[in-house]
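Lab notebook, bench 4. We co-purified these components, and the gel suggests they stay together. Before we commit to crystallization screens, I want a quick structural picture of the whole thing.
Request: model the full complex, all chains together.
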Amino acid sequence: MASPNMYRYDEFDAQFVAERVAQFRGQVVRRLAGELTEDQFKPLRLMNGLYLQLHAYMLRIAVPYGTLASRQMRKLAHIARKYDRGFGHFTTRTNMQFHWIKLVDVPDILAELAAVEMHCIQTSGNCVRNVTADPFAGATPEEIEDPRPLAEIIRQWSSLHPEFVFLARKFKIAVGATPHDRAALQWHDMCVEVVRNAQGRTGYKVSAGGGMGRTPYIAHMMSDFVEREDILAYLEAVLRVYNQDSRRDNIHKQRIKILINAIGPEEMRERVVREFEELKRMGTLQLPKEELARIAAYFAAPDFETLADDMPSGDAAFENWKKANVHRHKAPGYAIATISLKAIGQTPGDISADQMDAVADLMDEFSLGEVRVSHEQNLVLPHVRQRDLPAIFKRLQAIDLATPNAGLITDIIACPGLDYCDLANARSIPIAQTIAKRFADLDRQHRIGELKIKISGCINACGHHHAGHIGILGVDKKGVEFYQLLLGGSGAEDASVGQILGPGFGEHEIADAVERVVNYYVKVRRDGERFLDTYRRLGMEPFKNIAYQEQLSAAYNG
Amino acid sequence: MRLITGDAFVEDAFTTVPDDAPLPESGGAIVSLTRFRRDRDILLARNSPVGVRLLASESPEHLGDDVRRLSLIALEFPKFRDGRAFSWARMLRTRLGFTGEIRAVGDFLYDQINYQRRVGFDAWEVPDHFTLEQFRRALTEMTNVYQPSTDGRKTIRELRGF
Amino acid sequence: MAATLPQMLTANRLKDGDVLYWKGANWVLPLAEGEVFSDPAAAQAALAAAQKDVTGNLVVNPYLFEVRAENGIIRPVKEREIIRAAGPTVRPDTGKQATGKQAAHG
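Here is the predicted assembly.
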């Protein structure tokens, strides 16, 4: 079994997680005995990732900055079999969710997770959530440095932070280090980008106030350069201003995006600077470079073999998979391989226990024991040798994980929706499946090119519909599921908010509307234009007309 | 309601006085910020400790320099979900240098007591059924902490020797 | 006077999250076996009676929902309750629909 270069718990981390498990075990006992009411217990279980959903409890397991070791993947497979229905779901925050959990089993599940250095701490609740990062971190040639050491430092600093565990709402942080944003940074409550200043010094650009939900916003820059040693003080300053100044009177107006847009980014920066300068003076949050180096050592580049670039060729199936799913690696002779969890007609992001075990084997044999989870609900083998790609592809085919659609139109993000979720208004998965089947032809997918469809079953936007090139939002209109179409959103470095076209489409109309819109794009695009580019060039009007063409002609023809 | 400070139930040396009620002859009095602003001179002229009870929306900075003249500040949790008071307590101990009693009042969970103590609370107004055993458990469930706070406790990083 | 739709009473079992339906003074798993209240007052009375199981830490969040009879089969009005009674539409091999603990015959 390969041991990847990632953070490893020491006895303090292990004790922390073990005590948290014991604490929750006690809370469950007290809940079942009635010493805690549901109202008192709910925030406690949420801060351990446990929701009560449509059919059962749902447990959300943290996958910090999307990084998993093979023994952790095997443990997830084991939990899926022993405590759930043999499958799990990777989310847009790179966490793992199980939908069929019993409350009484959760303490044991948490203990099992702790044995492989995993936990569910703060995967829900009004607190700092899982810190996410580029799934290609440590492998892509584009990055200034691996962002994950900072993500790990943020994770520890935010774990049961006494001042910030009862924020006005959830607080999501993402960290990046590349010009190409694969982690939707600008959509986060706060994001940190590793940057170099004019003097060549490496530091951090911090932005805040992004968010989805009822009122989508892109983040505003708070500081274009925070020195490395100051970063925790700066982040704490932002959290402090948020905790003190956010509204608490209307649950729909309590994210930091609302605060920043209400007082303006300039005023926000001033408030943050005040807190930051005080924290700097106090000095307790300074991050010594030795500590950053110590954590970074866990993530040191693996010992890559000395190889030359020599990409193998194969049959059409392999070539198609290579074309979409394989990306350049910083080490010669290596590659980054995406395992799409978007098989046509299957549930986006779902993976069976058997598939998890098979992926764990692939991790050990071909990827130095490591896999990443992307916010697009796919898996990534970060360090594979180019020469192994044909063997990897063959093994993926054997377990139905070889769908060659990474980044293509059938690589759809979808939340669990009304099939699973207590908060949902409409089903999202069947819509994703219908659309995927409609566009299944691979040649057609490549002709269409990069097109990100994102589907949410309710306004909470777990499916990131605001950030879809094509976004779909399920709504409940008088008890019937309707689907609003949004166009022009982006979760990349060119972040933008999708625009709603108009009234919703019925369950049996939405795929047609999407197809009309896509066909129109193919017809009018200029050379090199992605769907997003053509949309931005032409604006909503022509797309709106084509989307509602059926409705308009029906109205016209009586 | 009962009062816990240190590690024990104690008698409350203060009376919480409604805005429209007369102040007690003697003994500590806790008043709202509104009342404090209105009757400040009277309150401070009394030969007894003065406390102010702040709503979750009221930053201690509203007290200005008077914070130094107060013996107690009660920070209210209108609903346990409203965590502003954690920042107010922290502000009192650090920026404002307050050394008097910071009392948690209102609706809070036993699970919050540990966090409250870390940010500077040192007294808790708890329901009658609340036991010292629960209080001690709340404070001891988690042995170590990752981040610094006003309690000055060594963080895990410091324990690691870094 | 407007006719109201019949109602049923549902909750989740605390210890395992199972979806339950009120029947008599008790709870059953299959929706088809649950009690249907044509009289709103009876529905409210059942909801009140169910509170004992909340304070008794057996169930959480009991609530009433509307149903209608279609060809002799009781079906919830809302999609959410249909799915909640049967299981996810995208995984017919999971949930009550898979174990037969869901709808009746009729």
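The first strand of chain C starts at residue 7 and ends at 13. Worth comparing against the SEC data before the next meeting. The two ends of chain C are 30 Å apart (CA to CA).
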